[in-house]
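Good morning,

Both structures are done.
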Amino acid sequence: MQWIASCYALLLLVFNCNLTRGYLIRVEAGNETRACATNDHQHAVAFVQNVENFDPHNHGSVETFSKVDIFNLDGNANEIMHEFDCNLVKSGGCEHWRKENLRMKPNNYEKYPPITDFRWHDIPVIFLNAGRNFWMENFLRNTALHAHFSILTNSNFYFLIDPDYLQMSTFRRRYNEPTPEEPNGRFFWHDRLDLIKTNEINLKNSGKKWELVSLRFSEDDPLGNEVQVNSGEISFPIAAKSAIRKLVSSNVFRNSFFPFFHFRGVSLVKMHLYNVLVPENEHSNASMERDVDFQKETAFCVDVVYLMRSPLKELERAFSITLTTEQGQYLHFTEAQPSKGVDTWHVVRFESLRRFSGKGTLKLSVGQQDLQIGGIKFCPGGNSVIVPKIRGMQQCHSLSTNLAPNPVEEEIFTGIVGRKAKICKRLNGRNCSEMKVCGSKSCDCFHGFTGENCKKPCERQDCSSKWYLIRQCLNDKFNLKNGLCLKACANPMFKFPFCTSQIRKVKPFVWNASPNSISLNMSRSLGSVSDFDHIRVRFREKHGTWWWSKIYKESDGKYFTLEGLKDKTEYVIFFTIYEHDWNVYLQNLAPGEEVTATTCTPIDGSILQLDGASFTVSNSDKKFCQPKQIDVTEISPGKLPISSKIQILDNQDYKKNLNSCKTGTYYVVSVSDIYQNRVEARLECSDENQLTTKHPPRDYPLKPLCLSINESVVQISFEDQLTVVVSSNASAADREKICKPSSLRVIESRKILFSATVDGFESETTIGNCSIGKKYQIILADENEHEMKFSFVCVEPEQIKFQRMTPVVHKIWARKIELDMSQSLNDDQLIEVQHKEEHTTEWKTNSYQKSMGGRLILNFLNPKTLYAIRFVQKNTSIKSKEIETRTKPCLPIDENTLEMKFEAPFTALARVKADLEEKEDLCRLAKIRVTSGKLVLLNTRVYDSELRWDLSPCRIGRHYLFRLEDEQGNVVQTNGTCSEGVAVVANELSDITDSQKILEMVFAGTVLMLMLSIIGLYGICICCEKRRRARQVAEEERQEIQRRYMSQIYVY
């Protein structure tokens, strides 16, 4: 039983743990590996060449041996964003990031896992000639040594630890110096019993791969000391562990040890030394942020490497990434996967297809307090192509120990790389000639080339390359088992999931029309298309916004009619073919080409009008469908028929003169409209130059429909990120007349993400999660397939909470509204309070923060006016619910609130008697008017609450009326009489009065002269009209005599 359990555990290890799906494809030119492509962003890709032949002076710098450039399969590298990386391997590589409660520390000899991610490329490379040593930093007694190395060598080597009681310089000289007898250096194992060393290490890959070598040494646990190669594949005990214990217990050791490697041959060594960012303490909020600049429009992609010392708890997050731009764009990602292991480096990619430009801020907020950040790197996104900085590489390999590709799946991924010509252009600036794509088993040419060296261009039919058969999937996301695309085709015109044939589309063929219907010839529309589930026929008014739709099935026959349309209205129509699997693959619902058609009355015989020997086709009143063509055939006794075709221009009448019309001759006239409706008439010459004919009438029925859903009767709201609520503000009786909502779809970038049935009004539909910042389109359809469209932007839960907030009104005056902000808002955030009048579009803004108090007053409003009020988040422009409230009407002016009087000299005075608080609600003065009989002395607008107007001197005994009107038309007036008390003014007035009398006499004389002139002109006009009428009668008599005379000549 124990044996069976062991085998079962081994099977689990093989099938579940060691078959991580990752692929590594080489791009070769001759014998050189130019690049490698992978779908694994978790691990670095290392390049290899024979180190025995490597010469730093001829083959490139040692510092750049392991450095690479990375771009995606489409050739995009995102180089301009690398200056914003947080590189904790390079000195100063993260100094521009602003850190809060985070400190930087080196890993040194602490217990950290090895680096296998993107940081590996930046670890310095040390070149060692044969017989040289790689010395490490000494470490103190009573401390443990943990260290990791990447080694590329095809020779054997040793790991040694030297106690410090000898002079190290002397030892190093005699240990390293080669001699003619021993060119790789002498070894003094026989007289160095105190030297702790391993057995000779022989790496199995012999320089064909970078080997991972891990060390563990502790004087407190000599039996646990070991060297591991490739994470435990081979373990080497350090000398005789009992001897180590004896040496440690002796007094030859002092304070520290000196560890080193000794290599027999040429070797390259990378020691995993780097920095990490750790939180300062458990109770502080740790974060780091960096100003970034998207100098050109770029998709967002960031890799973050991190390590956890303890597992995540339920609902606990490791960290979050937030991007905000100056243009108001926003992205937020959260890393929270409790299943991820501890004490191991994890790489998580945050990627968005949204494109960003301009400046912004990227922020990482730490959630778990024992989390450690290893680095942040901007990436090009998608699958990666890794290119070494130096030429001459012979091989590449992944640093993953669990890379186990399935041969079929690897071939599919190889095919995807093989049709990416942009890889070749990026590598050598030209096409893919002489370049190959190689998997683990074999190589093939890039698509478009063939031959032994892939030099020969080829056509598809004779090309040996098979990559054109590989399905082109969106973002190269395909099912690794069968090669089918996962989400959509790269070309949306192809049929998902095979993506090898185009989506079927057809164009409607309009056959006929009536005042309230349009008929489609489905046989001519579909052509050879058949074997589908149904076709959805969509149509709307050309200048309208709402689409209607009807379902057509093959069993419906040759013709299909759209009924219940408006007369003389142009409609847009298109078809969408629903295949038998449409409910499984909604991506294949692609609309076809649109056509336009106009409802109208088919032509009948009344469109043909006769006038002697001519006929006219007239549709000037647009009563009928537009006439298109006239066919005329003349048939005369003893002659061959003569036929002609006449094209009719839009909106124009056509007149035809039949000069050959004689008794016995007849004409067959056929008129057709734009929908092939045809009326045919036999025009007979009943007499010389006289035509006669008859025409039958036509009639068409109407069909009533329910009221289509629209924004005035149906509302959609979002309770949270997941739930859509359909409701109506119509009465119960009116709802019976409205078409009931029946289905709902969620669309992003023309792709249907979700669809479900809707159970009428007051229904809730859960649509699933959404991506923060993305815009979605919600389409609601009713039972008659009429549709409504709504836009929805996915926001954070806190922002949804803000959207639900409603301004609370505390008090209303005539000119101001007071809001209760303590009931409106829950947290202290800077917001904008906006308000606008009805029938206007401009919003006026007040800034508010909770620290400003619990009340906010909106001032300078107009009385008795409806205002809309809402809140807006300052940074995100998220809006709360709107409320509407009307200010109170102002208090009308009256004798109690207004003082009015005259003073000498002739001065009108008015003053509001109300106190300051009452003035706020009092109607403001708008107009002042002072009259005396029919004489207006003053009539003007006013803007103050206290008025003083100096008038002309008054006339003794004359009465004056002083009238004031407020902004709402309320009037208060007073009167007065000019008395003896102003005698000085009266004397002056007398002169002015005589002048006025003279002016009045002159005015009266002028009016009399004008009246006499008008009477004279009227008499002259009457005489002229009598003479004109007499001439007209004489002319009519002359024309009648001439007509009779011509008629007599014709009869003769």
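Second structure follows.
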Amino acid sequence: MDSPDEDELFEKYAEAKRKTKVMRKFLSFNERIEQMGGDNGRFSRKLATETSFETYFEDTLETWRAEDQGPDLESFVVSIQSNSIKTYAQLLHKADSIFESLCEHIVKPDCHSIPAFCGILSALARDLREKFNQYCWRSFEILINILDIGERIPENVEAAYLCLTVLVKVQATTLSKQLKKTFVHFLPLFASSRGFVRRFAAESYAYLLRKSSDLRSVSLYIVKQAYKTPHNYLSDGCALLFYTTYIGIAGTFHSNSSQYLRDIISSFVSLPNDDFKEFCLKILIQMIGYTIEYAKKSTYPNRFFYHHVLTKMLGESKNILEASCLMRLLHPCIVTSDDEFLNEGKNEFKTAEKVVFECPQELRSAIQYVVKFDDFKLDQYVVGFISETLLTIFNDDKNRLFSKDITLSIVEKSNDYEAIIDMLLKLIELDSFDLYLMPSLGKIADEIIKNDANNNGILRKITSFYAYLCSQRRPIKETIDRESRSNFFDLSHHSSYRDWLVKNLESDLDDEFLLDMLISWPWLFSQSKNVDGTENVIRIIEKYIKSDNKNILNSQVVLAAVSGIYMINKELLKTIDMIFVEQFIRKHNCCESSLLAFELFVKVLGVSKNVEYMNKVSELVYPAFLNSNGNVRLTALQILRNFKLKMKSITDEDGNVQCQTKSAFDVLFEAESSELINFRERLLHFRKLRHGQHKEYIPEGSSDIVEKIVLTELLSQFFVNFTPLWKGIHELLKEFAQEMNIDMFWGIVGQWIDNVNKHIKGSSEKTGLSENGRIIGVDLSNRSDFVNARIQSYNFFESIPEVAERRTRILSPLVLELYDDFNRLTSSTAKIENLIQDEEEEEENENEEETNEGEESEKRTEIAHILKALNSLLIVYSKFNAAKATYLEPKLLEMYEKLLSTKYEGLQKSALACICSYRSSILAQYRENLDNLIDEDKLRQTLIYFKLSNDEDDVQVIDEHRPVIVPILLRILHGKLIANPKKKGAISRRNGIIYVIGGCRSDELTFFFKLYFSQIYSIFGSSSSFDEIEKICQKEGFFSNINLRVFLG
């Protein structure tokens, strides 16, 4: 009889082990009570179930003895002499010895009878009733250790749950009189890292807490105990406890829930402000959070009772400190989610949850009451609550005057102008803000300018507020489309600030302050009034345009200033020399703000019909089309659309002359402006510019720059992460690759790829796009997926191998560079290279921290990205017809051979395909089996076709083929050995590989061993002595810097 396969045995063992880990459902305390009868009466009847024995103890003992509970239970039975315990009197007489023996056996290490002992303990408690009080605390300690500290054996945990449930219910009268002592014993459960343990503890103790006549003092004691050893788990346990006190089951609440909630909150809001009170409030906020989530799923009529309780308490608060605490608790009840958000992992939109607040009128009265306090002051919580309330509950027509009155009352009562500005900033989305609340900002600015003009901090904040508001209401990006400079707020309240701004509008201010002033400057003057300060703004434009500063704020200052002048008197922009403007564009490498400013200059100059100037501007803004930001490309196209030039006349086959009315810039603009979700429309526009047809849209007399822009714009669509779009882009690019001048095509493609690679490597082109500007919606941080764009461009090359083969001078360095990056990240010697080279130099990084998890994750992601890109280019090279004629062919062949030895299956397949492209007739005979050998699913079945030993005259590789096939075979098998997959059949797989290798001849084995230990040879050398090896190993930091994982086979 054959012995069972060890892989099958291992699989059976693993399956059995997985089954033992399946946990049963842990029932909550309330669910346990419900199973036993639900209410007190039914529970008592359940406990009083008739039995043939006089005591529950004897009944339970006999029941468990009938099951196989191991020697621990039998040892306990012998120790208590169970035959002499048949009556209640005997049980009562021997209770002490029974309990002691039970405790002794249940706490034994590796006890296998814990379910039985828990059942016996609960039976003993039911028999002794009030006489069990003396054993209660010791029993709690034992059960809590099982639940919280003991191993997670499902049967033990469930038995301990049931026993603890019975003890709490049976001893409820006693425990409710000693709530503080009971909580101390339950404390480990409340601090447990296991969520279900904390929930059970909360439900158990809440059952007792409801019986308390002094809930406030007990609640305070509970949090004081938790504060002694503050921990997130313990805080969560306390929040669960308070929350569970007033909830019921099946979505209901306790009949006295309002009073319970009021008592719990009242215990803490009157405390003096200190760290302990902050600790308490965080627990209460968490409690309210649990309540909100519970109420959302409830159909209970009075499920929003907590709105009424908190609002009423706010209206009864005695001072602003109490009111602030209650506002913090009310705040979660009025917060809304975003209008729409994409569900994680699902391509579907979910509508926002609307605020449901049951007592808005009571809340309105409570806020008015609080604002009238003598000690009223604004803090971050009051500001956040009032602003959120006005935005979510009172943001309608009938409450506009209320919002105005409350805000003005706060402005009059509070001298904390910074807090008031913060509140106004939060209220900026209020419908009535511009009409009713903007005068408050003007009043504050007037007060500051008159009484504290040297307070630079508050003036900066006011200026930032004006700038933010103007950017929101009148975006700078819409300056060109704006027909008039209509004001959106009453200017009569802001004259003091306007005069101050004009007086201080100078170029000597720092960039941020000056930018905020320039954004708001044109909106502080009415259309009918002369605007002061234009001379200063023109000087600022001239200074900043001529400056060598490449900071993004420099560009945004110019944009804000030019935009202001454009709206007030655009003719003044003609005084600026365009030579300096063009230098300014080049300096900022066509960032969005510089292009928007340039667009305003071009608009002022009017429609141009000068084709030479169009060529010059096209060259100037060409870097914008390399940008991954669609808004930048769109702005550049909008600039070029200002040229109205005659298109080339095209004569068709019938002799008809056609002339397009739109230029290529118009078509590209329409394509870039189309909604991404309607990708077919975008492709429809791009297809108008197919190679050949695109000439109809190129102006007469234009240079090659227009074609460059068309092709670059098509390539930049790879920055758009929308898969359905890419197939159409591939088709269009393929036509350009096949029909366009090859040098021009690859010059453009090479420049685009270089730009992408620079961003991937983190090399800044000094575009400023890595910075965030201050103007809303302009110069946003660059978060484009350059890695995916590179992969998509390499995937495109797969469709044009005949064209790519003619320009391997561009592609070969890219492949080898990716291979170097791959080696850098996966080689064991990468980390210690400097360590060995600089033996005699002083170590600079001896205190360098170990790589954390985040860095490891980053490294894995980088490897994955490089693998995809490298694999894509290898597939391109595998389709070449003349592999030996490629640029840098010797280095490429060496790379192919080394990649065959890698553990990555995709790279092995691509590398083998590249080697096969050399058209070896011998290799072609084995190609199919070699491919199958790389395929992990076919590996074991394919190994038999590569038998190298001739012990049974069944060798599969003949002698004439061995010099060609065996090195390739050994490289592939080396990769399979180091891959070491953790799955069924791993051992027999490894044995099969070693069996094939065992058939090698001596020179072939030498080749394999050099290959297998190449990482070690690269560190120590192939001829190092033991002394030299020992010296290297003893070097400090050697083993912490070497990647030992690569040696694991």
